[in-house]
Amino acid sequence: MSLEAHLRERRSAGAKLLVPYVTGGLDDAWPDVVRAVVDAGADAVEIGIPFSDPVMDGPVIQEASQRALARGATPTSILDEARSLDVDVPLVVMTYCNLVLHAGCARFAAALHDSGISGAILPDLPLHEIGEWADAADDAGVETVLLAAPNSTDERIAAIAERSRGFLYCVSLLGITGVRSELAERATDIARRVKHATDLPALLGVGISSPDQAVAGSAVADGVVVGSALVARLLEGAGPEGAHDLVSGFRTALDDAAAEEAP
Amino acid sequence: MTTIPARGTPLVLGPPGPAPDPTGRFEQFGGQFVPETLVPALEQLDREFRTAWASDAFRAEFAELLQSYAGRPTPVTECHNLSRKLGVRVLLKREDLTHTGSHKINNVLGQALLTRRMGKQRVIAETGAGQHGVATATACALFDLDCTVFMGAVDVERQALNVWRMELLGATVVPVESGSRTLKDAVNDALRDWVATVESTHYCIGSVVGPHPFPWIVREFQRVVGDEAREQTRALLGDDPDYVVACVGGGSNAMGTFTGFVDTTSDLIGVEAGGHGLESGRHGASVARGVPGVLHGARSLYLQDEAGQILEAHSISAGLDYPGVGPEHAALASIGRARYVSATDEVALAGFELLSVTEGIVPALEPAHAIGWLADAAGTEIPKGSSVLLTLSGRGDKDAAQVSEILRARERGA
Questions:
Q1: Closest Cα partner for B128 from B315, B362, B372, B278?
Q2: Which chain A residues are within 8 Å of B37, Cβ to Cβ?
Q3: Strand A168-171 and strand A202-205: pairing?
Q4: Taking CB atoms and an 8 Å cutoff, what residues of chain A touch B301?
Q5: A80 is a catalytic site residue
Q6: Fold for domain B25-58+104-214?
Q7: Domain ranges of chain B
Q8: Using the beta-carbon criterion (under 8 Å), do A98 and B188 form an inter-chain contact?
Q9: CATH label, A3-144+207-253, candidates 2.30.30.90, 3.40.50.1000, 3.20.20.70, 3.30.300.30
Q10: What is the pLDDT along chain A (263 residues), one digit of tens a residue?
């Protein structure tokens, strides 16, 4: 399933896009968590493949990554489980580039495709380093989602938008992933600048922790990525039902906001 | 009016060395594998460094600091006793005699000048043994900059004295509880801080690692070690030494040293941490046992498992406890210009005692690896009668408590 086509279609239908993040291999129930968040109204799901040294991640996702690695999760084991997810929204992998380079770009991209994964987000692979990966991903039919940051120049954002596939990930603040009490001041600014540069779906992520923040952010952006807020609940043992409840809360708030905006 | 130097003749730095290629690579190693947020800061740093390093005024200011504050040039000491014992002519480049007691001061003074030039007020750094942390805290005290040092919680415990020194110098020391709680994790947390504070903060990285332009900048600020040593060994030997030897963790003292000799006929040898032995899996020998990968922003050689997860390094010395090596070392290894050997914890301890007893010089545990390796290799890999320049990257005071405890425990066990 094409990530970009699906998100564009949902956007055209008037929806605010919601993409939850789940750490792959966190526990035995993680595939059920993915199914639960899809059932709760996710438009796509990000599956984290844990890396030993996740420099873009805060304490919550670090902890989840450590737990998954301690259980013996590997890219191969997670992709094997992903293959049998059988959900009706696109799946996007988020991981760090060493795991990709270690496997080999072409092999990794093919493995994603074979597991039914539509896209990939590699936060430590900026535009000027993506060459080898992006070519392999294109060949395998995997959409490479690039990130833009609040301190990216407009010229840089234009170049990133040009090469990004699936959607454009707008980092809402200067900082790493984690739960924040308020939406960052710069979130709407980066979303506005990205929207100005491209028609690609623009999703705000990093620090989107509550339905209110999601609504405020998606007043400008096309939607949000929700990571640490969900993973924190999973670490507390919320399980698939808890995940379903949390994502339903975001879905309802975003749908209400979309309905108010609708002419 | 001529300036009268504080001592000796004024230090003059050699011309800038070769830059990496436009993508920040040495051969296929290096690059800039970082979150988008850091890209503007790295571009700014690249720009500022290029301009500064080409400027005579900047280089003169750096040279003056190295001389009047850090105590450069450092001497090369001919070790007559050790030479007699080993049958090879051993010359030591004495970085242990600099202010703060290791080569780390060279790099931090340069980066402090760059920080001021960029108008930033806050500096962060990672540290393993505490040498780079102390050096950074020192430079920040001198330049009146706010300083935060990330240090693995395990290292905070084993290097309590250096923690106190950093705090005395006005720095905040943050114990890092993530991952293996050592140097690798301290770099992770420094990068995480930098992603959030990049507009006001400079990351003063301590070795020839990290994303471009750091490996290049740190090498250029450390090449004074090799440039001085080449002139000094030529004066003593009438020629370049047969071998140039230095210990390698991330590899800054070795890179600084090798750069002075890379265009000579000297054999360049890096000594990595062999830990409990390469077969044990508990070591820090990234060139010998690492594979290409990306960590901390650079493509280089790293210790990894079969899936590509980074492994913990092990070394008796916190300064070599790093699972990777700077990209320029990986490049020198790949083209065969330098070779990399290893010395176990045991060999390092033997080197520590040997240099103390024969020359009255107590080395840091890091260069003790190089001393220990040389003692074992003399007469075999290093033929009798050869000349060897070995960089003594730091003094052993910081390790006295740890080593005395190990040796006492042994006596009790015996």
A1: B315
A2: 149-151, 171, 174-175
A3: parallel
A4: none
A5: no
A6: Rossmann fold (3.40.50)
A7: 25-58+104-214, 76-101+223-413
A8: no
A9: 3.20.20.70
A10: 899 999 999 999 999 999 999 999 999 999 999 999 999 999 999 999 999 999 999 999 999 999 999 999 999 999 999 999 999 999 999 999 999 999 999 999 999 999 999 999 999 999 999 999 999 999 999 999 999 999 999 999 999 999 999 999 999 999 999 999 999 889 999 999 999 999 999 999 999 999 999 999 999 999 999 999 999 999 999 999 999 999 999 999 999 999 998 77
Tell me the C-alpha distance between B318 and B222, whole Å: 20
* pTM listed for this prediction: 0.96
Distance from CA of B310 to the nearest CA of A (A): 6
**Which residues, listed in sequence order, are joined to residue A226 by a DSSP beta bridge?**
A20
What is the CATH number that goes with domain B76-101+223-413? 3.40.50.1100
Cα–Cα distance list, A206 to A119, A170, B42, B115 (Å): 18, 8, 22, 29
Gap from B331 CA to chain A (nearest CA, Å): 18
Note whether A129 contacts B196, CB cutoff 8 Å.
Answer: no
CB–CB contact A102 B308 (8 Å): yes
Among B27, B126, B295, residue whose Cα is nearest residue A124: B295
Out of B80, B99, B103, B283, the active site residue is B103
Which of A58, A98, A149 is the closest to B36 by Cβ?
A149
User: Is B283 tagged catalytic?
Assistant: no
Closest Cβ–Cβ partner in A54, A69, A124 for B33: A124
Q: Does A76 sit within 8 Å of B37, measured CB to CB?
A: no
Q: What are the structural domain ranges in chain A?
A: 3-144+207-253
Does B25-58+104-214 match B76-101+223-413 in CATH topology?
A: yes
Residues of chain A found within 8 Å of residue B203, distances taken between Cβ atoms? none
